Amino acid sequence: MNPIAVIGAGPSGLAGARALDRAGLPFEVYEAADDVGGLWNIDNPRSTVYESAHLISSRTTTEFAEFPMDSATDYPGHRELLAYFRAYAAHFGLTDRIRFGTRVTAVEPVGDDASGRSGWLVTSEPAGGGASVTRAHSAVVLANGTLAEPNVPAFAGSFAGEVLHTSAYKRASVFDGKRVLIIGAGNSGCDIAVDAVHHAASVDLSVRRGYYFVPRYLFGRPSDTLNQGRPLPARLKQAIDTRVLRAFTGDPTAFGFPKPDYRIYESHPIVNTLVLHHLGQGDLRVMPDVERFDGHTVHFRGEHDGDGPSADYDLVVLATGYRLDYPFVDRAHLNWTQASPSLYLNIFPPSFNGLFVLGMIEASGIGWQGRAEQADLVAAYLAAEQDAPEASAAFRRTAAGPWPDLTGGYDYLGLDRMSYYVNKDAYRRQLRRRIRSLPRPAGAAAGGGAAVGGAADAAEAADAADATVAGEGARA
Ligand SMILES: Cc1cc2nc3c(=O)[nH]c(=O)nc-3n(C[C@H](O)[C@H](O)[C@H](O)COP(=O)(O)OP(=O)(O)OC[C@H]3O[C@@H](n4cnc5c(N)ncnc54)[C@H](O)[C@@H]3O)c2cc1C
Question: Which amino acid residue places its CA nearest to atom 29 of ligand 1?
Answer without folding.
Answer: 38
